[in-house]
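User: Hi! I have a protein structure encoded as tokens and I'd like to know what sequence might fold into it. I'm fairly new to this, so please keep things simple.
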């Protein structure tokens, strides 16, 4: 769990914003809710590598340097992450790490970096993905510092099959998330939330998940909309607000999948609704459940879907999902979901309303369009 600069600020990131984000993670209670890694995404580096191949920080945007920034972040009880790419350039056109993996891994370790997001842009110099990503994985394993390795090749080469062997602790399964339900042809790239839901329904992907490596369906867009940095600065068609109901669906699915939770909102402007979603303790407990299973789709009937995953206490987490445009009633049964415990009565706890009740069999709810009911179920 953590926060990454990209969705909020895109290419307009600088050290003041990162220091503010570190302060805000503490002040808002996000850190104490579990959001621990603060990751600076693309454009932190100068336009050229130094003559010896090392990175230099962007002189105007990061004048104090990265070691200083990492210290500032560590002093607030957080971990510090950074970004590069397994090619000649980052996606924003800054220099990246292919051919300099060892040098850069050593530099990250010296700076006090705890997490590397490693992207797929630039020229690959004829090397395949496994080769390029394993080179950085090996380099990180050799430095004298624990650095979480986040592989970001957008799911292009089925990383769930090989990213663990390349040293990755998490790997993107899918393209870039947008703060909306569905992408249109006017979006230069990206996927809406429901499109990621459909890609993550693939059992081949689901079975690769956890607890020693994680499918990453991309960062959170909770709290974002047309005003967020990515929407403003990239060639995207994000003109409408991202409705609260869709944001709750987004967060619920990420938790059901045991996905990395990387917030991406401007923490200086976080409102109560956004905070309530991002810091919901029951949702986070389902996300962080020790079994680390990615919840799967149990049944589809028209626009109604039932999803669930087993939990370490032999209970289950359940999503009743309405992908349609009108309110519907969705029902499941204790036999249908991934529930190991057997009992005469089960307790159903509603993650979003905080209500709870008991049932011997049926679990159902009226669900609004694009909405979910999100439950934790266990013996009463
Ligand atoms: C994309 C990546 C995004 C962001 C961006 C930066 O490739 O998927 O998450 O890091 O590059 O340019």
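Assistant: Happy to help. Inverse folding works backwards from shape to sequence: for each of the 380 positions I chose a residue that suits the local structure. Here it is:
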């Amino acid at each position: 769990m953590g926060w990454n600069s990209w969705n909020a600020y895109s290419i307009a990131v600088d050290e003041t914003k990162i220091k503010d984000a570190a302060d805000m993670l503490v002040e808002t209670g996000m850190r104490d809710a579990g959001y621990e890694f603060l990751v600076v995404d693309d454009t932190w580096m100068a336009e050229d590598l130094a003559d010896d191949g090392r990175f230099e920080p962007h002189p105007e945007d990061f004048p104090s340097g990265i070691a200083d920034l990492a210290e500032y972040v560590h002093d607030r009880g957080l971990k510090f992450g950074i970004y590069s790419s397994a090619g000649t350039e980052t996606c924003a056109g800054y220099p990246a790490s292919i051919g300099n993996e060892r040098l850069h891994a050593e530099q990250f370790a010296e700076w006090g970096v705890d997490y590397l997001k490693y992207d797929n842009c630039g020229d690959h110099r004829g090397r395949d993905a496994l080769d390029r990503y394993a080179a950085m994985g090996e380099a990180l394993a050799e430095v004298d510092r624990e650095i979480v390795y986040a592989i970001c090749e957008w799911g292009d080469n089925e990383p769930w099959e090989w990213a663990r062997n390349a040293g990755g602790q998490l790997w993107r399964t899918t393209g870039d998330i947008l703060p909306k339900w569905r992408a249109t042809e006017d979006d230069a790239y990206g996927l809406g939330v429901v499109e990621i839901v459909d890609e993550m329904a693939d059992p081949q992907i689901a079975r690769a998940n956890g607890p020693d490596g994680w499918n990453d369906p991309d960062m959170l867009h909770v709290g974002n909309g047309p005003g967020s940095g990515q929407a403003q600065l990239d060639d995207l068609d994000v003109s409408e607000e991202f409705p609260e109901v869709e944001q709750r669906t987004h967060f619920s699915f990420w938790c059901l999948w045991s996905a990395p939770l990387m917030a991406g909102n401007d923490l200086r402007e976080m409102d109560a609704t956004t905070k309530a979603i991002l810091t919901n303790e029951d949702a986070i407990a389902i996300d962080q459940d020790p079994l680390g299973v990615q919840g799967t789709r149990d049944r589809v009937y028209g626009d109604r879907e039932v999803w669930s995953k087993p939990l370490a206490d032999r209970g289950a987490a359940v999503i009743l999902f309405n992908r349609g445009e009108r309110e519907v009633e969705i029902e499941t049964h204790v036999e249908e979901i991934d529930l190991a415990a057997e009992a005469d009565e089960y307790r159903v706890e509603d993650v979003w309303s905080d209500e709870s009740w008991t049932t011997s069999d049926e679990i159902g709810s009226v669900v609004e369009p694009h909405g979910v009911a999100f439950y934790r179920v266990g013996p009463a």
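A useful reference point when you look it over: The CA atoms of residues 87 and 125 lie 7 Å apart. Feel free to ask if any position seems puzzling.
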